[in-house]
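Reopening: Acetate kinase still failing for me.
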Amino acid sequence: MTTTRSPTTGPDPVVLVCDPGSSSLRLVLAGPEDKVVASRHIEQPPGSPAVAVAVDEFLNKVVARPVRAVGYRLVHGGPALTRPALVDDEVLRAVRAVAGLAPLHLPPTLDLLDDLRRRLPDVPHVVCPDTAFHRGLPVVAATLALPAPWREKYHLRRYGFHGLSYAWALRRTGDLLGRRPDGLHLVMAHLGGGASVTAVRDGRSVDTSMSMTPLDGVPMCTRSGAIDPGVLLWLLEDDRLTLREVTDGLYHRSGLLGLSGLSDDTRDLVVAADSGDEAACLALDHYTHRLCREIAAASASLDRLDALVLTGEIGWDQPEIRTVVCAGLGILGVQPPVRDRLDADGPVSAPDAPIPVLVIEPREDLELARETFAALDAREDRGAPRTSRREQPVPTATAVRHSPIASINPYNNEIMREFPPMPEQAVDHAVREAHQAFPSWRDTSVDERAALVGRAAQLMRERAEQLARLVTREMGKLIRHSRVEIDLSARILQYYADKAPVLLADDPLDFKDGSATIINDPLGVILGVQPWNFPVYQTVRFAAPNLVLGNTVLLKPASNTPQSALALEQLFADAGAPRGVYTTLLVPGREVYRVIESEVVRGASLTGSDRAGVSVGETAGRNVKKSVLELGGSDPFIVLDDDNLDRSVEAALVGRLHNMGQSCVSAKRMIVISEVFDRFVTALAERMRGLVPGDPVDEATTLAPVCSEQAAQTLVDQVRDALDKGATAVVGGGHADHPGAFVQPTVLVGVTPTMRAFREELFGPIAVVYRVQDDDEAVSLANDSPYGLGGAVFSSDIPRARAVASRIESGMVWINHPTSSEPELPFGGIKRSGYGRELSHLGIKEFANRKLIVTMGTDAPITDALG
Ligand SMILES: Nc1ncnc2c1ncn2[C@@H]1O[C@H](COP(=O)(O)OP(=O)(O)O)[C@@H](O)[C@H]1O
Ligand SMILES: CC(=O)OP(=O)(O)O
Ligand SMILES: [Mg+2]
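Support: Ran it again with your exact input. Result attached.
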């Protein structure tokens, strides 16, 4: 059967959209602003011959004028496609790779793509993943409780589906409630051929009932939904059923059809149940029971329930089911509907019902049209990108990636490049090469090694702009911050090139019986594990001193900054580094431990998270290898008086916002003496308020994204926790009103020890300002932290500032300047911030064998030795 629904004529037929569901295909010719020019709903499974005929007819008869693009609902984007994407061979490969995860949907979609690309070869074809809406699922919800190696190898996780429908219904809900979608807490149920339930918190999907495949969750028309996995194992065991039979049974013969033995169509079942058919009654009762269960479960992810939203053909058009579901949710405050039929989206609950129940017409097709237009606009804006951003609201980002090693621009989530992780043999080979390169590198003179590092400095200056742009595109910092990073990195290289002979000179000791000297020998192969926040600077500050010392280095970069890492490796190669002296390992984190355990690796230096630090330190310790750890920080920034308040505020701004707050020595806790507090907070908030979000490559932008939408969500959750527990946001407090990983610059006051913001590192543009009465209270608050990296004290009374600085438990304190880094100054911390020092004369000795050589005269008396 084919039907044409609710067309409203529009002037400009521009895009053709194809919305394949499991039981029907909808074709729509759509103009901008949700205008439907023509549409056809073919109520047959896509892929069936009747559908092919109807598609043919639609294209030949209805699509009379050229279309600008064709958009397709892509039920499963898999790990690679987390945004709408223009179809090319790579995209098709990515879709084919996951076709088996959605067997009802993806094979017919691929056929449709094939057919329409042949018929309309000159227009762009855009796939819009249903899974994109859920790409920012919190890790806790996205994780499947399966063995880690399986999860990693097969990208097993919860993806979530029906995203186009949810995106549409979320916006409509905002319209109906007169509220911004990004402030809403909702449970939404899409009930169609497939069915799912989603918890939406602040406009973002935070949990959803379908997981890796659209077979999970509530029972559906012909699909089982979640069942005991043990049942499947048992059915497959001893060949009770074949895999093919089980697959067919779960996808085609279960759910409402399996329960009723009658029909998969709720309309038939309602009629049959009314006439007393027991199986039909059981089917509907079980369906509504499971829905209630899932909706109640979803509500546990929310702080409050602003509305229950029902959509999908069944949610929209099957009042009997709505009534039973609402009646079963009294525990949530949901009351039975007071209205049956609706002509347009709206509430079915009473006006004074505590929880509004809204029913929204499913319009995946129109959402698809919007996304297709957006992809076209993005393409025109930027040449021809592969991916485009969704319109607002932007669902949060993803930990989902095709490869765990990928450059994804946090400004627009464009996947710039993905890298397959190096196989184990390649890693072993690289370790061997580094080991083999060591003896000859050790035996070159310090001057030769310094000359190489000097050439690297020169190349870095020459390539500064190119490198800065790469860093900005890869991790999102403002372009001027990237330039500062590259400049500092070049100066570090130059410092070690110039100073190496002095820093590595022998160290004679006073020894009464002969001559004693400490010489600085290299140790061998050293592994550096480096983070993404300063992908060039952190790497250089590890590599430069070790190379001039004579160690060979292996570099494991963060998995989101592989291109910066490779650009650096190239730079050292171009500077003349012999093979094996400087090698980048593009490997997942777990490989690090195998490398440290390797016989020939003599030490490891890590800058990164506490967790990674603990593991690296532990592995190195177990293998009796030296390690240097530079971990998190929660640096105090203490303002003692109002002398130069403008300067202190300026310093606070720089200290907190450099690198968008994603620095271990960021001014994370501002501690201000009471008399100055109010003026300080007002001035700081004023400065923060004026920041302008935008493309970080653009010089005019002053607010950059944080490194990923996941990171943005974590920050917003930390802030929200503080606000919920009584803190105040003087400015900011949530996501910035800009697509991508943007967070509002925020000033929090009234933070107390029960709040996450008190103990956790806030890795973004969030300033927490504490009021203290005097210097003693400032010091005791400063030291009330598990971390001890840097710190800053502001006062024109230098002795007073020094007295405070001397009592701060940290590795570095700066007076009258935010904590910073320079080549000649040691960098490192104490407590949970780690141990060891980088940079300066101290950094170069961390992986040196400070070997004692004692020379005695040939006639010196031989005494009894100790030791
Ligand atoms: N008025 C209705 N029109 C179409 N389908 C309805 C209606 N009421 C209930 N349904 C149910 O919704 C299902 C179709 O939902 P739909 O979302 O179009 O399917 P698909 O999974 O193909 O996207 C039908 O199988 C039927 O059970
Ligand atoms: C994901 C899914 O099940 O889609 P549909 O409901 O259209 O079959
Ligand atoms: Mg559907």
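The mean pLDDT is 92. If you still see a failure, please send the error message rather than a screenshot.
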